[in-house]
Every structure is written in structure tokens, then in C-alpha cells.
């Protein structure tokens, strides 16, 4: 009984429990404090390294990196991250703890590059002995995106046939007509090496080209020259703004295809191509013939000097197969054929259905039905993935001219339609007589850039 009473009193006594509870609570508080300190340190280190991951991802999409390959972008991100994380103390990190992914995809009119940096590391614990844990795992990721327009090569095919020697404005046309009364009122500034053979009746025996110059009359070919020269500056500025590269080749077409400047194939960089193209554009001028109907004194072709379809066929051979325009290794630029013309051809073609004066063919561009030349060259070129931009300079009606009434007037209404059918969707622009050719050419270029896309 006495023993039972002593045991009972001991069980009911609470005076020693405080020490036991304090001992247990102190152990838990130490563990919690240690965990709190190490967790806070790990969080701070993770936030610091996340900032480095942000910087690494952004380093891969800078304007300069957007001109380089995906592999180079990944290397740039890795190098930036590794150099910064090396300065963070009390972490364990190795080269295998980072993964960088990079991809270029189409985003409307541009190329969207996305770079993601994913990393892992271990934050060393201060209270590792207490926690029985040497470190805490940390990690994170960061992504950055940027857009870049595709690299694009522009092939300019400019009409320099005699029809481009017409005055550029109505006032200029009126001036030329009035000054050439002895010729029946000719609105064309025809360029001839022997104008005396045509007995033009101009002051000093000059040809109509010189007459237009002396009268201060601007011809359409002058507008094409100025517009092309200006376009090279526009292309340079646009390329800088779009973080990409544009190059230009310039060809003129009359009775033959003439190269003013081409585009060198890889691996040539052509970094100054647009500067050279601008200088070459200054050489755009009207076709000079011997006299009316003769290219030279011994080569008379009845003034058949506008082989537009044939020159389209030649351009199809000149232009290589286009690429996607990305910076991936081995990829090549996209391509645009930009045609500037009044859309009327005049050449030897026994199969032409637009004129009764066979075998001379006068017709809208891309309408040949000669069995030897019956391809729809515009469609052929577009089917290769090359877009066609067409700046149509309105073929001005000349109802007082017998030649016009007989040969051109019957299909006048079809000229613009044929030009528009040749162009790719959204890449047709029409300038009426007196219109702003420079502005129109720049607008058409911007349309071509805006509708650029990856080709799959």
C-alpha cells in the first residue's frame, strides 16, 4: 500500500516536466532556426542565380545574336551563365547542371527566337551537422524571346525598254507633244545614236532624249533610276531595324537581260551589297538605239525591244532556289523578284494573239502563246517559293498616236490585270502617270518585308 501511494504521488507530480519539455522544445527550436537560416540562404542564392539565368537568356537574343545560329545562341547563354555563377559562394554547381534550349519559329511576318535556360545547384547548409543535411537543392529557369525578319535577297527587274522613255507626268507629255509637232507629236524621249536618220526636226539635230533633257522633262526611266537608288537606303535602314540582312541584285530588261549588279553566292558575305547596289542604280538609263527600228546600223528589228516574257524566263534561271531565311547552318535567304514595268512587251513571236502585225508581238506581260515559249513564267517562279512584287507604271494611253491605237489600245484594259496576276498576293502596286514612283517602290518593298514568312 505504501509503495502504491509513493508511485501515485510521483505520477501526479508535475514539477520536473518543465525541464523535459524545455529540452524537447529547445531541440526543435534549434532545428527550426537552423532550417530557417539555411532555407533563407538557399532562397537568396536561388534568386541571385535566377537573375543570372535571365541575363544568360537575354544574351542569346541580342540583335547581334539574332543574326547568328541557334548553336551560337546556346553557347552565348551558357558562357554568360557559367561566368556569373562561378562567383556565387557556398554552392555546388557543375557544367552538367545547365540546359539551354533555343528554337526559331514563324511568328506572322517574323522569325521568333525563344531561348530557355534551366539550371540546378546545391546550396551549402550552415547547420549541416544539426540538420544532418549537407545542402539544399535549388534550381530555376528563365526564358527570353526576340523577333527577327528573315534574311531576304531582292532581285530587281527593271523595264528600260523604249516605252519607259515616255514623259513621267501629264505636263511633261504635253510639253513633249508640243515640241515634236514635226514628228506628229511624240511623247517619247527616244534615245538614238543617229537621230538624223529619222529626220526628227529637233533643234541641233538632237534626239528626243536630249530634247527632253533640254526642256526639263522628267522621263519614267528617270523616276525608276531615282526610286531604285532611294530604295537601297530604305533597305539598309529597314534591315537594321529588323535585325536582319537584305541584299539586292539589279537587272534591266529590254531586248536582252542586263546585269548591273548581282548577288554573290555563299560563302561571300556581301555585307556592303546595298551600298554597291545603290551605286549601280545610278547607271539605270534608257535603252539607246541607232535609230527608230534599228538597234545598230546593221541590226534592224522593227523596234521590237521589250522581251519581257523572255527576260522573266532568264531571271528564273538566274535566281537560285530560295531558303527559309533563318540563321540555321546551311540555310539560305528567302527571295523576292521585284518587277518595275509598264507591263507591255514587244518582240518577235509568231504565236502572239494580241496583234495582227505578226510575227511582231505586242501584248501584256506573261501572255505569250508561242508553243516554244508558252510557259506562265510568273507562276513558274512563284511555284519555286520566290515571291513576285510588281510595281506597275500605268501604260499611258496615247489616243492621238496611230501606232498606239492600232497595236496597244485593243488590249489596254488587260495590261494592269496581267501585271497583277503576275504578282504574289498583296505584292502589287500601281502608279498612275505623275505618281510618286519612289514612294511606291518603298511601300512595295515594305509590303514584301511584312509578308515575309518561313517556307516549309
Summarize the structure.
With 456 residues, this protein is α/β, with parallel strands linked by helices. It contains 13 helices and 16 strands.
Overall description:
This protein is α/β, with parallel strands linked by helices and 456 residues long. It is rod-shaped, with a radius of gyration of 38 Å. Helix 7 (220-241) packs antiparallel against helix 8 (273-281). Helices cover 38% and strands 22% of the residues. The chain folds into 2 domains: 2-148, no CATH class; 152-166 and 219-450, Rossmann fold (3-Layer(aba) Sandwich), CATH 3.40.50.410. A 6-stranded mixed beta sheet has the order 8-7-5-12-15-16, sandwiched between helices. Strands 1, 2, 3 and 4 form a 4-stranded antiparallel beta sheet that branches. It has a two-stranded parallel sheet with strand order 6-9.
